[in-house]
């Protein structure tokens, strides 16, 4: 008898005509391969938060908050020494890949701006004149090389529209059938990975202070979580080696958008993670700010060491306590305490 997850798997395979393996460059944009960006001004509630204690959690995406590359190349399943169906994982990864590219192209101008990756949606803010875009025709505005100030303005318009769509979420553009396929794929993937997606999302929510059900929380435009009965604020920041637009779409598809705002998503594709970390430190510059990096790669590890921030290394191998499910708020709190002192380990409570 087929289990529900197996039935969903075969239905999803039937629903999608899976393409042959895409080019290495296209996959790198989705999963991370290998400019300048203005430091975002901190005002209002966010500036108030700077005067209080702030924990900044800097997350990697692939093979940390989500699984994609390790599904596509089989390394996730292979770590289980025959207990996982490698080909099933590959097919699941291909379906996600198709989803991501489809959403990028249909809703986020990716075909137009793929070759103009920026570290964040705010990178060209100074070129945005605030024009009303409600009747703007993005297909007829002549956006094309050369990359001069006029085209930077047109790209800034697209970034502003992408930010609006990110805030709205995908439920506003997906029909009922597409939402059902999306939900089924998420459930199938979560079952195949023994709850990796839901467990990672739960920890992300706990790091936001969302685990305190009795605590009303206010979220500023910068994504800072202000728990009104505590002096500690929390913020999740994503620094991914993938290009920016697919990374935003992955946050939406993997249900992370309510926990990581678009302004807190950085692409290190061209500039490197150390540069992104430096921008983040400057953005949240205060004696009361503590940073912690969580990821699986050598680049974020070295960048965290350079910044003298704690680094939590994600390990895909079964049985590790530094994977999902497995990693807990208590463990993350321990890393804070080692670097910043035991009196600052606010996260020791699970």
Automatic annotation (TrEMBL):
Reaction(s) catalysed (UniProt annotation): O-phospho-L-tyrosyl-[protein] + H2O = L-tyrosyl-[protein] + phosphate
Active site annotation, chain numbering: 60, 62
InterPro entries membership: EYA, EYA_dom, EYA_dom_sf, HAD-like_sf
GO cellular component: nucleus
Keywords: Hydrolase, Magnesium, Metal-binding, Protein phosphatase
Uppermost EC category: hydrolase
Gene Ontology terms: biological process: cell differentiation; positive regulation of DNA repair
Keyword presence, Plastid: no
Membrane-spanning residues: none
Cofactor(s) listed in the protein's UniProt record: Mg(2+)
Note describing how the cofactor binds: Binds 1 Mg(2+) ion per subunit.
EC number: 3.1.3.48
Entry similarity comment: Belongs to the HAD-like hydrolase superfamily. EYA family.
Protein name according to UniProt: protein-tyrosine-phosphatase
């Amino acid at each position: 008898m087929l289990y529900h997850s197996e039935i969903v798997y075969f239905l999803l395979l039937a629903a999608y005509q899976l393409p042959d393996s895409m080019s290495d460059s296209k996959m790198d944009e989705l999963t991370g391969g290998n400019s300048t960006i203005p430091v975002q001004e901190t005002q209002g509630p966010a500036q108030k938060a700077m005067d209080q204690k702030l924990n900044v959690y800097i997350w990697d995406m692939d093979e940390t908050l989500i699984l994609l590359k390790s599904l596509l190349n089989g390394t996730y399943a292979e770590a289980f020494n025959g207990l996982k169906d490698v080909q099933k994982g590959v097919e699941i990864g291909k379906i996600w890949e198709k989803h991501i590219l489809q959403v990028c192209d249909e809703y986020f101008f990716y075909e137009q701006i793929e070759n103009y990756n920026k570290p964040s949606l705010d990178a060209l803010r100074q070129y945005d004149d605030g024009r009303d875009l409600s009747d703007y025709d993005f297909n007829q505005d002549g956006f094309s090389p050369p990359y001069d100030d006029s085209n930077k303005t047109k790209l800034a318009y697209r970034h502003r529209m992408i930010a609006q769509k990110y805030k709205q979420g995908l439920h506003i553009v997906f029909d009922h059938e597409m939402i059902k396929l999306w939900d089924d794929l998420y459930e199938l993937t979560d079952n195949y990975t023994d709850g990796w997606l839901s467990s990672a999302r739960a920890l992300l929510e706990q790091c936001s202070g969302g685990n305190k059900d009795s605590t009303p929380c206010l979220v500023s435009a910068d994504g800072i979580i202000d728990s009104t009965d505590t002096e500690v604020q929390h913020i999740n920041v994503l620094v991914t080696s993938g290009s920016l637009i697919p990374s935003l779409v992955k946050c939406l598809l993997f249900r992370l958008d309510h926990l990581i705002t678009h302004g807190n998503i950085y692409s290190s594709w061209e500039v490197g993670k150390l540069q992104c970390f430096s921008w983040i430190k400057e953005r949240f510059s205060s004696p009361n700010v503590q940073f912690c990096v969580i990821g699986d790669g050598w680049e974020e590890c070295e960048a965290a060491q350079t910044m003298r921030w704690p680094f939590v290394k994600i390990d895909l191998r079964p049985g590790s306590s530094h994977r999902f499910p497995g990693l807990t708020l208590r463990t993350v709190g321990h890393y804070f305490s080692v670097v910043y002192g035991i009196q600052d380990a606010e996260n020791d409570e699970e």
